[in-house]
């Protein structure tokens, strides 16, 4: 059984996720925790629930999703896994972080690389890596087939899609990948985005104004 706990952190209102099993193995995905209070929230939940963090994963490496990477690596002695196309994106954060007021940002490097189709072990469960670029060049999604849940980062939101005007963005590619990678999942799959509330494949296939059946073309 897979459980998902979400936190909303930093001025970008980014969703940080803990994906954990009944036996406590935990993946920390997109840690946006920047302040001591935010990091305390994560730590307290992990401690009070007896969780054992074993994975640190980024869907992509824009600043709001990586603010807590260095802290998680140090605090839980974990290695960071990202898609190789996100190496430059991650590196650039340390350059522009002060422009957003994050003067205490601590940069870190990836230790492992994720590729399309990879299966990541989380206890007895597995997360499948889907490759959905467009918002960011190396954006991935983590899908748990057994529970029909997916952490989708900034690819698809409830009633919207990720912005594509940032460096490495590609609007047409994002639309194409949402349809080929996410909309081919069962309609009851719950999608947990990088911002805002969760949604489902079925809802977005019908109502999403950019890629849904009722979208204006």
Automatic annotation (TrEMBL):
Transmembrane parts of this sequence: none
Highest taxon above the source species: Bacteria
Cofactor(s) annotated in UniProt: Zn(2+)
Name by which UniProt lists this protein: MBL fold metallo-hydrolase
InterPro entries in the cross-refs: MBL_Glyoxalase_II, Metallo-B-lactamas, RibonucZ/Hydroxyglut_hydro
UniProt entry keywords in alphabetical sequence: Hydrolase, Metal-binding, Zinc
Metallo-beta-lactamase domain sequence ranges: 13-195
GO molecular function: hydrolase activity; metal ion binding
Pfam family, one: Lactamase_B
Keyword Zinc: yes
